[in-house]
Design a protein that fits this description.
alpha/beta, Aminopeptidase, 7-stranded mixed β-sheet, 8 helices, 7 strands
């Protein structure tokens, strides 16, 4: 038998063995993605804190809870340990949500929200993070949610919202579209679309170590400037509290709603 033929047979066998090992290694790595990982899911708002702005068709607190519960089911089926900051229509203070997240090791925190603004034409999906350790998670979730939704991407953004700034684990806040946009509100009103959102967020959780970190817009100074403007306005007496203002401690925002920072 020619020597070259033996070498070719040996090379082919080695190649098959290598492919077999690589495939098994990849499968094992995929199986380990949920091993000992806790996902803390935070459905935004709740109870007296309806979320959004007055007059919008859908209540944000109901939409976030529905998506969060669907996300819990998808992740649990994949082997993740899942903890909900709320599992019913109750108000949970921001500090309590953070305390729940920080009580788990080897965990990640996913906060589900929908956006709102007085400008009906505004639309799209955006994902927020604060710590650098959270960027891969934010990038992956944004990648999958935008890829599976008909809405435009508003990008990944860094901002010091309370639930992101105070957590000691990778944490993101995903805005799943504008409930004040008639088209996106119609999407959110569909159970199948909310299920799709949950599945794509779950795909981002699973792919957090695979999808590369995205470029982002740093908005960490926005909240400080808004706070200074508010202080100046209060001193001048230019603004008066409206009777429809939300109770202290809520996640109310004005304009293109800003999560409490």
């Amino acid at each position: 038998m020619p020597r070259n033929f033996c070498r070719r047979r040996w090379s082919a066998a080695s190649l098959l063995a290598t492919l077999f090992i690589c495939c098994n290694s990849t499968a094992a790595q995929t199986d380990r993605t949920s091993e000992n990982v806790t996902v803390v899911i935070d459905a935004g708002h709740g109870g007296h804190d309806r979320g959004g702005i007055p007059g919008q068709r859908f209540s944000e607190k109901d939409m976030t809870l529905d998506v969060a519960q669907r996300l819990r089911n998808v992740l649990a089926a994949s082997g993740y340990r899942v903890v909900m900051t709320r599992d019913s229509d109750v108000f949970v203070p921001l500090a309590t949500r953070v305390a729940i997240a920080n009580s788990y090791r080897n965990a990640i925190f996913v906060c589900v929200h929908f956006n709102a603004t007085n400008r009906m034409g505004a639309g799209g999906i955006e994902t927020y993070f604060y710590s650098r350790d959270s960027l891969p998670l934010a990038s992956a979730i944004h990648h999958f949610v935008v890829g599976g939704a008909p809405s435009a991407s508003r990008g990944v953004r860094r901002r010091g919202y309370y639930v992101l700034r105070k957590t000691n684990i990778p944490a993101v806040l995903v805005e799943c579209g504008f409930l004040t946009n008639p088209t996106e509100a119609a999407y959110a009103g569909s159970a199948s679309y909310r299920q799709k959102l949950a599945e794509e967020i779950a795909a981002g959780v699973r792919g957090r170590n695979i999808v590369g970190s995205a470029s982002y817009v740093d908005q960490t100074k926005v909240a400080k400037s808004e706070h200074r403007r508010s202080k100046r306005s209060q001193k001048k007496g230019a603004r008066k509290k409206k009777s429809s203002s939300k109770p202290a401690g809520s996640e109310a925002r004005s304009g293109s709603i800003d999560r409490e920072s």
